[in-house]
Amino acid sequence: MNRNHLFFLMCSFFLSWTCAGQTGISANTSLPFDRFWNDMISDFHEEFLRVDSAGFAGLCVKHGVSPDDAGNQKKYATLGLLHRMMTSSSPANCSMEGALQIPYYWHWGNSRPRNEIVWTETGQTLLQVRPPAGFNRYQCLADIDRTPILFWKDLLTLKPRYFTPDCDSFYTFGWCSEREMAYQAFLRAINFLPSQESQSFARIIVEGAHSWSEVAVKLNTVSGQEAWFLVSVDNTYGTIKWTPADAGGIAALRSRQGLTKEDRWYNQQAKAALKIQTLQSLQVSVPVQRRIHRQLAAFFVQN
pLDDT, tens digit, for every residue of 185-194? Predict the structure, then answer.
């Protein structure tokens, strides 16, 4: 057997392992956004718990959380897996730490780096491209605030829409507030964050020029009780931290209305019912299902 034949067999084995028998890939039909991602999380949540076994075990031992409770495992894995899919590692252009390789890109500022991103459909820079429908108050595609629908819709295209010499081709991008809007809207679209907020809820926190997510979630303890935790998720710096919360901390986060116009707008974009319904209805084609599944499988093979 020559080397080329051996390489072909190894590639075929890898592709069959990443695609065959997985619930997250439809044989020949598109899937709605919420069904596809719920299936994908089901496919990979055990792999995430394997990779982050020390973190989950530490949470359980330190705070009396039941390690065998399936609900605890699913909640821990869902928040962590989504974070590991989409995070960057720093607020630097082209920083993309996560499995889906979604680069960070500064918005506004003196240098206006988004002006130089190329729109691959026409070869023009985003400065030269008119914004899509619904973004009429912006002058060009470089100026728009990338709302969750746009952020995730771009990821689901067959070919990358964007290019820069430093980042190469990429499907979607965002800076801190855009990443957190996308993170929380995703969690609502898959019904991890139900509208009644009795078991879990989230807010985008804005301080200075930075944004991150605070997610409140209940876990079951070894004593059979429920306990609230606050999960600080930063999809710019690549950090996630679980902390026990008392009633006062939960009430303070639940009542938080936002201190600035931007703060309130970010949270509204991440939770408006009509926008979440639109996100849920996005269709994920079979080629995109396979691409995302391969990216996640490769990420866990490397880790």
Answer: 999 999 999 9
